[in-house]
Write a structure and sequence with these properties.
Elements: E1 3-6, E2 23-26, H1 33-52, H2 58-68, H3 80-99, H4 104-113, H5 126-132, H6 147-157
Helix pairs in contact: 2-3, 4-6, 5-6
């Protein structure tokens, strides 16, 4: 079996066939081993590069993002895709809260009750609504006595999640 291999100097224009002077005939069957070895070496170099830049790498960026999205205190570390999805939903919620004419907690309560029909489809997932009850609302300037309303709404809208009220409410 004979295969033709093109030199790297050949033009990338696929409209013209390769000229015979720019290709060589190989008399041995195609062997993918050199490519695999090259790929493995490239992967090793990339892993080493990522390890050298670990403090500024993607994993540390995800760790930082996980700190800023609402999570359950007993929850294991979120996967990267779950972190991204939760961050997208949380950012959408925060954007709507900033644009709303209500205080943050009132806005969320009204959305969960269905009283406000905004773009909440982007953030109103059972995952995020359950997590809203775990947010430290005092850090956001929300009166602590009002958390119980949101907790009952969030937990009521996500009954499939087996979690009780947050420990700070017991």
């Amino acid at each position: 079996m004979q295969h033709q291999y093109l030199h790297h100097t050949e033009c990338l224009d696929s409209s013209t066939p390769p000229s015979p002077s720019l290709s060589t005939n190989m008399s041995h069957p195609y062997n993918p081993a050199p490519y695999k070895i090259q790929r493995q070496q490239t992967n090793v170099r990339e892993r080493k590069r990522m390890m050298r830049s670990a403090p500024n790498g993607i994993n540390s960026a995800f760790d930082e993002l996980r700190v800023h999205v609402p999570t359950f205190p007993y929850e294991k570390r979120l996967s990267k895709i779950d972190t991204l999805r939760l961050a997208i939903a949380y950012i959408a919620l925060l954007r709507e809260v900033l644009e709303a004419d209500y205080d943050p907690l009132t806005y969320v309560e009204k959305c969960l009750r269905g009283e406000i029909k905004a773009d909440r489809a982007h953030w109103n997932t059972s995952d995020l609504t359950a997590r809203l009850s775990w947010i430290n609302w005092e850090n956001l300037g929300v009166h602590p006595g009002r958390r119980t309303i949101l907790t009952s709404l969030a937990l009521g809208s996500s009954e499939s999640l087996a979690c009780g009220p947050p420990p700070h409410l017991i």
